[in-house]
């Protein structure tokens, strides 16, 4: 747990330095499609929730949750009051941070 926390703080520090590049990626949605995990960035929480809602309803995505880059909060997704996946917050956080690190590497 401590390692994840340190890693998370370190990543947020990197993001703060590069936020002008990733200003439209505050909220990272984490989901699976055909058993492969993915992450996508959004600038508004409502867009992130809409993506997960309609992805679940229409496109057979399995929503895990949303990670907020600025606060470090990872929130499991609930569809109509029920969690869609048995994925804990640390896993959501790690997938989102891996996505962000990859995005940073691609632009530097």
Give a short synopsis of this structure:
It is built from 3 helices and 6 strands. It has 108 residues and is of the alpha+beta class. Helix 1 packs parallel to helix 3.
Question: What report would you give on this structure?
Answer:
- The chain has about 110 residues and is of the alpha+beta class.
- The protein has one domain.
- Helix content is about 45%, strand content about 25%.
- The protein contains three helices and six strands.
- The strands form two sheets. A four-stranded antiparallel β-sheet has the order 2-1-3-4, sandwiched between helices. It has a two-stranded antiparallel ribbon with strand order 5-6.
- A hairpin with a 5-residue loop joins strand 3 (about 60-70) and strand 4 (about 75).
- Helix 1 (about 1-15) packs parallel to helix 3 (about 90-105).
- It is globular.
- The termini are far apart.
Helix content: 40-55%
Uncertain ranges: 1-22
In total, the number of domains comes to: 1
Fraction in beta strands: 25-35%
N- to C-terminal distance: 29 Å
Number of DSSP strand runs = 6
Please give the oligomerization state of what you see. Answer: single chain
Highlighted features:
alpha+beta, two-stranded antiparallel ribbon, 6 strands, four-stranded antiparallel β-sheet, 3 helices, 108 residues
